[in-house]
Design a protein that fits this description.
- The complex is a heterodimer of chains A (452) and B (99).
- Chain A has 452 residues and is an alpha/beta fold.
- Chain A is built from 18 helices and 22 strands.
- In chain A, strands 1, 2, 3, 4, 5, 6 and 20 form a seven-stranded mixed sheet that branches.
- Chain A is globular.
- Chain B has one domain: 2Fe-2S iron-sulphur cluster binding domain, sarcosine oxidase, alpha subunit, N-terminal domain (Ubiquitin-like (UB roll), Roll), CATH 3.10.20.
- In chain B, strands 2, 3, 4, 5, 6, 7 and 8 form a seven-stranded mixed sheet that branches.
- Chain B is globular.
- Chain B is built from one helix and eight strands, in the order E-E-E-H-E-E-E-E-E.
- Classes of the chains: A alpha/beta (452), B mainly beta (99).
- At the A-B interface, strand 8, helix 4 and strand 9 of A face strand 1, helix 1 and strand 5 of B.
Chain lengths: 452, 99
């Protein structure tokens, strides 16, 4: 199998890139883990009812999905990419079989994941992410039974609260953990944010939604913990407690950098978004000439920005592969860049408003589990740092953190923050796990098929 | 723990969860079926035997590992349900060779 452009991920960035690249004459193949295009934000949007409780912003994704379906790009749903060679070979599993695709250029559009929320009790059954509840609603029309409490902060938390209410399953409460200083810090950035007023208005509308839906809202919540024996029975915080059957946590999203870090692309620590992101040029180009990144996987900027960055990456790929000259690339890019600047204008305001509390980034309690897979606690990471471990990769050897099936996807940011704190050094120096293939589970039979 | 929302089409895909027949909506994952079945913990961990259930549902956390049609340690959130699918709790670590 060959392609000129292989796109990993069929969310807004991947779909938009595929549409434009195909239009420019490139042979495009899109690989995506899901069964339907849309990414997490437009997940299963093709199947959504016109009166879906998920709302108009969600349903708007149907146009992009339809354009993608009509684009002529080859689409491989249900494909789990488990290795990419720098020479452009993409290995993946699909329908239980192994396969490989050779591509002249690769665009990583892997999107974002929800930031880990390591509070006491977060491994109990009945504690999930807010995004998980939204996925159940989008893909299968499922809503929680019993008492649901949402806790954390950020636009998605409020959006899920409003969507659950619209779907007939209003949450019992929303606990907002944003530190009090966030609003003051954000206010100083409000002027610049007005350039992106559409996005800003959308965000502010969301923040007002729980009040409109009659969901009890408590601000300034600290010391959050999930309580229960064998499953969550209550959520507690400093000064309060509520019985619940389901606790949905959310503290914002961070780029999914797993594949890019395995490829050893240059990454930089983003202090404003508190996450690692690949170092990108103005076209999404990385430190490898044949690999680009678009969308939230390159830094969180939202779905509209993801579409635009996907188009820029498509233009650059078409130029690199000889389909358009530099003048045409630049001419087509100019309006996209203006729109992208408007989309990004309000991010600093939103980032300041939704900056996670310190306790989420580096949990203060030594007995909190940090690595869910290997059940490594914050105290064990601190001890490893005091014993001489200098970064996450050494902590892994000391404690097995990051060595389980998730390969450090969830514990990575927390381990790095705990080590930085213990060693008194900036996270940028502490570094990140070096993930290795297979990025996703692969069977021996799939490997054998590749060889044969 | 989860149920079909009001006004939605009835769940029509019959699968078995821990030997019991459960109807789940078209488009649901095996992890969703575990949640609809309401069995609480859907696995226990290889390290301490602690109870767990799906957490992220988007392929990141691996806490939804389950035995699907006899194959252990599948990421159940990444597997769409099919009629007759057999889904069971993942008990601790996978054992090599015959039990």
């Amino acid at each position: 199998m060959t392609a000129e452009l292989a796109v990993v991920g069929a969310g807004p960035a991947g779909m938009a890139a595929a549409v434009l690249a195909a239009e420019l004459g490139l042979a495009v193949t899109v690989l995506d883990e899901q069964d339907l295009p849309g990414g997490q934000i437009y997940r299963a949007v093709e199947r959504a009812a016109p009166d879906s409780p998920l709302g108009a912003d969600y349903l708007a994704g149907r146009d992009l999905v339809a354009a993608f379906r009509a684009s002529g790009a080859a689409y491989l749903p249900g494909a789990a990419v488990w290795h990419i060679d720098p020479d452009g070979t993409v290995s993946f599993g699909r329908d239980g079989r192994g396969a490989a695709l050779r591509a002249r250029h690769i665009l990583l559009a892997a999107g974002a994941l929800e930031r880990p929320v390591p509070i006491p009790g977060w491994t109990l059954p009945g504690v999930m992410t807010a995004g998980a509840a939204q996925i159940l609603l989008k893909s299968a029309d499922l809503v929680p039974e019993g008492r649901t409490v949402l806790a954390g902060q950020g636009p998605l938390l409020y959006l899920v609260a409003a969507q659950l209410a619209a779907a007939g399953a209003p949450p019992a409460a929303l606990l907002d953990t944003a530190p009090a200083g966030n609003r003051r810090a954000a206010a100083r950035l409000a002027g610049a944010a007005l350039a992106g007023w559409r996005s800003l208005a959308r965000g502010l509308r969301l923040l007002a939604a729980p009040g409109l839906a009659g969901i009890p809202l408590r601000r300034g919540v600290r010391g959050l913990r999930a309580v229960g024996r064998g499953r969550v029975e209550a959520v507690a915080w400093d000064g309060g407690e509520l019985a619940c059957d389901l606790l949905l946590l959310h503290e914002g999203v961070i780029p999914d950098t797993q594949i890019g870090r395995a490829l050893q692309l240059a990454h930089a620590w983003d202090a404003a978004q508190w996450c690692w992101r690949p170092v990108l040029d103005e076209w999404g180009g990385t430190s490898l000439a044949n690999v680009s990144v678009a969308g939230d996987g390159g830094g969180i900027a939202g779905a509209a920005a993801a579409v635009l960055s996907g188009r820029l990456a498509a233009l650059a790929a078409a130029h690199r592969l000889g389909r358009i000259d530099a003048a045409e690339r630049d001419r087509r890019a100019a309006p996209i860049r203006s729109a992208l600047a408007r989309e990004r204008a309000f991010r600093p305001f939103l980032e300041a408003l939704t900056r996670p509390p310190r306790s989420v980034l580096a949990p203060p309690q030594d007995d909190v589990i940090v690595c869910r897979c290997e059940e490594v606690t914050a105290g064990m990471i601190r001890r490893a740092a005091r014993l001489g471990a200098q970064g996450p990769n050494q902590a892994k050897a000391f404690t097995r953190c990051g060595m389980g099936p998730c390969q450090g996807r969830l514990c990575g940011p927390v381990v790095a923050a705990l080590m930085a704190e213990t060693l008194g050094r900036p996270i940028a120096e502490i570094g990140a796990y070096r993930p290795r293939a297979p990025y996703k589970p692969v069977t021996v039979a799939m490997l054998a098929e590749l060889a044969g | 723990m989860f149920t079909t929302r009001r006004d939605a089409a009835a769940a029509t895909v019959a699968v078995t969860v821990e030997g019991r027949t459960v109807l789940v909506p078209h488009g649901a994952s095996a992890a969703a079926a575990l949640l609809v079945a309401g069995i609480g913990a859907t696995r226990d961990t290889p390290v301490s035997g602690a109870p767990r259930a799906p957490y992220c549902l988007m392929g990141v956390c691996f806490d939804c590992l389950a035995e699907i049609d006899g194959v252990p340690n599948r990421q159940s959130c990444m597997v769409a349900v099919r009629p007759g699918m057999r889904i069971a709790r993942q008990r601790g670590r996978r054992r090599a060779g015959p039990a």
